[in-house]
Every structure is written in structure tokens, then in C-alpha cells.
Amino acid sequence: FVIDNTENVTINGLTVDYEEPLFTQAKIIARDPDGFFFDIEVEDGYYFDLKDTNFFTDSMSVHFFTADGKTHRDSPHSVALARRNIEKLTDNTYRLNALKLVSASKGLGAGDYLTFLSNNEGYPFGIHGSDGFKMNDVTIYSGCVGISENYGNPNTPSVYRNVRMLPGPTPLGATTPRLFSISGTGFHMTGLTKGFEAYDCYVYGNTDDGVNIHGIYHRAYENVGGNAIMVGSGKLGSRFEAGDVLRFYDENYEYIDSATIVSATKADDYKTDISLEQNVGVWTFKPIEKYKVTLDKKVTIAAGSWIENEQEISYHFILKNCQFIEGARGLIIKAGGLVEDCLVQGRPIALRAGPELHWLESGYIRDLTFKNVTFKECGFDKAHVDDRGIFGAGLFGEHDAIKSRNQNITFEGCTFDNNYGVQLYVSESQNVSVKDCTFIAGNNSTQQLYIENLDGITLSGNKFEGSIPTIEKGDNVKNYKEN
Question: Are the C-beta atoms of residues 13 and 143 closer than 8 Å to each other?
Fold first, then answer.
């Protein structure tokens, strides 16, 4: 379903599934004692035809599950498998000759499961440039909502109620139920003039973020007289309109200044020898469109400076009474809004709030509240791009930034229950409040709360259970208050 440039479209009471799952699922029947291969058995109902190079691509992601169908906690949530490493043994058994795959799957053996899929992504819904889109009582099997962009009226956001994203029924001919549901992000929202709203929604077992809310990065070419700058846009059709507020950062992502757009025009004929293309970790920035932007004041910038548009960052979103269970990362948030009465459980990371330049996803957060949210048994994936170590829930900026800050972040009445490593890790932020929260150590946690590189944090009325360190302060913590 492609819903583009519409107003007030509503979908009620729909169920969506695929005739065949978008992934292949198999049971491990043998593991080489020397760690060179897995032997797997594929049930009827799970598609497996190596001649189909559209599905079995040169590289596929593999996900590990224990015999009871839970995400395996001691292995990365995703490992690449090359198509050439699959060897057919019989009609329904195969050998995976993959050293990296086997070495990553610590503790897995006969009786456990793995799933792997190609680049086919389960996005039955794509909503772009549409105001007032509503989805009520919708069930999506092996799929997700996809990318939703709203550049129109901020008073009519998209609203999702009782939307469920689930693995779906066991395929015909199989006895083992589907172990995960979505090959993409549950709700992926970017560039919204006003954030979306989701109530009573349930996202289970997806292989990407439960929700990702973010803006788009742009880069500056140069100052071109007066208050004008030339901008290379990171996205086709980006928003540059009079009244929008731009934030400017240097190449190291330190804050420079903010200014308001007076006028903006596309500049397709602009010629320059300046190259803005740059690999930032996971993605490579490539300017797609060029704009001449005039500001309400002069901002002196260098070529390659980073730019965020506050009106593209999806502010004022609402997540209420939603659950994000199993799968990959949980709440990935780069915008101000409200998360209330929600549960994030069994995910490699429960929360990653703040910009991620390495994904080219902005921005720094203003005014974000977590109220009565439970983060439980998350944080077991040790592979974090910015090398923070193991944490369940985290609030960050770019690593060790001095002037760049998330601002006005509140955790109130939240529960951090048996997350791996540090239960709550807070850094690169200003005016943070952790109030009336409960920290339950369990067997997985090594530390309750770690803070560093902060300007203003207040802790009050919190409860700490378990015999592990409670509050540890790292470097550069200012205006610390504890009641």
C-alpha cells in the first residue's frame, strides 16, 4: 500500500500477510565440533530455493533463536551469511560453511533455530507526504508500517491505534511457528513536521528498530554573501521553508549556531569544486539536492559543516501504552515527545535516544519525557557503533561532544529491570531529571546508573534494588543534584 500526498485517509480492521514468509527458518541439527559449519533442516512451508537469486542474495542476515523460540542473548542479533557458503545436502537439509556465523553463535547447537533473509523487507505500508493518516485495529504479519513522512499541516499528524506487528500463523506444511515477524523497523518516522501518535500498539520480533524517529542531515558548501549559504541536502525533497530553524554543527559535530530561514530556493545550476561526500561510519553522505538558503542572521560556516532542520525532526510525537518485545533495537529516538506506559523487553538495546551521525539520522533532542516506561532484560548485544559498552537504555549525543547537547529530558516513574550492563547510561545532555524510578539489578546488570559529560542532572525519589553499584559519575559532570 503506497499512500502518497493524501489527506485524512483511514484504514480500519485490516489484516495483512504474505503467502510465504519473507524469510527462511531452519532448525540446527548438527554443529561441527571444530566450529566450521552448521547443518540445518528446513521445514515445508519455509521457502528455500537456492536458484532464486532474488531471495537468496549474495549476502543475507542471520538471526539466532534458542529452542524455545527466544532471541539468543549471547550472540549478535544479526550476522551476515554469504550465499556461496550454503551447501545442499538433501532435499531439505543444508550445510552452512561460515566461520563467522558459527563463531558468533556462542552456545547454539542442535535443537536451536536460525532464520535468514535477503534484502526483501516487509513494508506493506509506505506513507509519504500525507496528513491525517489513521490506522485502527490493523494486524500486520511479517511486515511493518515503514517510512512515514509528513511535510504538510502540523495540526493533523498520523495516528495509529491498536496496530499489531506479529510473526503470523505457522506456514502451511510447517510445524514450527514463525520466530520473528518484521524485516524492518516497526514504525520508521522521518521528516515529520509534527510527530506521529501511536496508542495500544504491539511490535514483536522485528529485525530492526521497534520505532525510529529522526530527522535528516544536510551539509553546508559555503557562505555566498550576506546571510546566504549553499546547502547540500541529504534527502530528495527536503524541507527548507521560511520560518524553519536550522542548527549548524562543525565537521566534528560540535554546535556552532542556530538561525531562521528567510527564504530558500533550489540551486540545481550551482557549480562548485567542494565535495561533501563522506563516509560517517555506517552510511556515506552524498548530497542529493542543492539549495540556496538565506537566514535571518549571518552564520559563518566551513565547508562540510552539518545542518539539522528543527522542522524535519518529528517533534511532539506520542507513544502511549505500546509494547516492543524481542527483536532488534527498541526505541530509537531523535526528537522531543512523550513515551508513556510502554514496555520494551528482550531487545539488544531498549533505548538509544539522541542523534546518530553514523546512520545520518538527526537530531539533538529538545523536551522528551519517559513516564511509567519499563525497560526489561535488554542490552545484551555488545556491538555498539559508538563503542559505549553494554547498556540497556541510553541517552547520548555524538561521543564526547562538549557543546552539543540533548536538552530537557525526563525519566519519571520508569522501571529498569534486569538489563544487561549499565541499566541507564546518560551522556552529552543538559537538564536531565530521573525521578521516582525503580532500578532492579537482577542477574544481568553490572551497574544501575552511569552519567558523564552532562550539564545539569537531578536525581530524586529513585529506588535501587540489588547489590551492584548504583550511581557512578564519569568525567565532565556539572550541576549534579541528588535528593
Answer: no
Integer Cα distance of 33 and 259 in angstroms: 62
Phi-psi category of residue 80: left, alpha or beta, with phi > 0 → left and psi -120 to 50 → alpha: beta
pLDDT number for residue 280: 93
Which amino acid is it at 83? R
Strand partners, 279: 284
Q: Check residue 183 and give its pLDDT.
A: 67
**Is the model more confident about 464 or about 103?**
464
Residue 383: predicted pLDDT: 66
- Cell numbers 503506497 correspond to 2
Q: Is 214 helix (H, G, I), strand (E, B) or coil?
A: strand
Q: What is the pTM of this model?
A: 0.92
Q: Are 449 and 423 in contact (CB under 8 A)?
A: yes
CA–CA separation, 77 vs 63, rounded Å?
A: 6
Q: For residue 119, is pLDDT > 80?
A: no
All cell numbers assigned to 150 = 509528513
Residue 480: how many other CB atoms lie within 10 Å: 14
Compute CA distances 154 → 44, 131, 263, 363, 394, whole Å: 48, 8, 20, 19, 29
Reference 220, options 179, 257, 191; nearest CA is: 257
